[in-house]
């Protein structure tokens, strides 16, 4: 984990910037309303007695792209895993359209319309593109052709190369397969864990363009990214996590132009965030 920012939220509201104030639990309660997904005060971790997320708050409204940025090890991927039931939540609650889904199992969440694309090992390399997409349809195999047409519209390359083994594809193409597979189940929410990581600049651009295109079809998106600037460019709102806690939240545009955010997370001092 990196050092705590010097202006991390304090208990005195007079000292908080608007983006810090918005990240306080009280403001979260005011703003989250009946969001599509909301996480209230969640604490979670991998090893007994070690919390990675501490009292984290998050919400995603219908139709939004919400970005999660922050330094290496801040807990961004962990928050996504907690939302998708991949790690136990020790305190707090997660709801999906007001239904409690705290630590619900991943297959249940898929049935409820939540798709998740992990950062790595997100395709079956020995299977063809088409077979990978079929794996995404195991709950509704009869709808394959209908969903394949939608996915092919977003990722024409997947249709062109449908008989190719996923293992023979480039990193960027594999990312398309992984996103396509999650979309096969017609999710209302897509949780994307660093989809641009390790890709060439051209493929990184493609990922962000595709995120916007997917969102335009009505899918809400939670986007964890190390490419913080680019993420904030396309997201409606963003959260900055630092050391497992909410540090800042505001619109993507405001965060991208906030001198404190630039200094701490986007500028030369931010180092790892500047990929
Ligand atoms: N499976 C695991 N078991 C134990 N600790 C883990 C595990 N996965 C992650 N962690 C720890 O949790 C902390 C947060 O990791 P996480 O991957 O959520 O951070 P991140 O903000 O996504 O960082 P990055 O941008 O580097 O991926 C780190 O200290 C990491 O070492």
From TrEMBL:
Homology family: Belongs to the ABC transporter superfamily.
Stretches assigned to the ABC transporter domain: 37-268
InterPro entries, alphabetized: AAA+_ATPase, ABC_transporter-like_ATP-bd, ABC_transporter-like_CS, BCAA_Transport_ATP-bd_LivF, P-loop_NTPase
Signal peptide coordinates: none
Keyword Secreted: no
GO MF term set: ATP binding
Keyword ATP-binding found: yes
Name the UniProt record assigns to this protein: Branched-chain amino acid transport system ATP-binding protein
Keyword line: Amino-acid transport, ATP-binding, Nucleotide-binding, Transport
Native organism: Williamsia maris
């Amino acid at each position: 984990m990196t050092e705590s920012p010097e202006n991390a939220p304090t208990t005195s509201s007079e000292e908080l910037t608007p983006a810090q104030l918005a990240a306080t639990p009280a403001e979260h309660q005011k703003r989250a309303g009946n969001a599509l997904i909301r996480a209230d005060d969640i604490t979670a971790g991998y090893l007994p007695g070690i919390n990675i997320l501490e009292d984290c708050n998050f919400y995603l409204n219908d139709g939004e792209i919400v970005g999660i940025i922050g330094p290496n090890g801040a807990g961004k991927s962990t928050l996504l895993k907690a939302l998708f039931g991949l790690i136990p939540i020790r305190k707090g609650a997660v709801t999906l359209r007001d239904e409690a889904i705290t630590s619900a199992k991943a297959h249940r969440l898929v049935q409820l319309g939540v798709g998740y694309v992990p950062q790595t090992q997100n395709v079956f390399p020995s299977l063809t593109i088409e077979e990978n997409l079929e794996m995404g349809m195991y709950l509704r195999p009869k709808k394959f052709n209908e969903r394949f047409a939608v996915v092919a519209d977003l990722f024409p390359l997947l249709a062109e190369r449908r008989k190719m083994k996923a293992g023979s594809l480039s990193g960027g193409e594999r990312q398309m397969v992984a996103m396509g597979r999650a979309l096969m189940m017609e999710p209302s929410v897509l949780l994307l864990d660093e989809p641009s990581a390790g890709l060439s600049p051209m493929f990184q651009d493609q990922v962000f363009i595709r995120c916007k295109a997917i969102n335009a079809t009505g899918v809400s998106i939670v986007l964890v990214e190390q490419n913080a600037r680019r993420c904030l460019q396309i997201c409606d709102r963003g959260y900055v996590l630092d050391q497992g806690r909410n540090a800042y939240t505001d619109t993507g545009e405001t965060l991208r132009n906030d001198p404190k955010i630039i200094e701490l997370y986007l500028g030369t001092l931010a180092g790892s965030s500047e990929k």
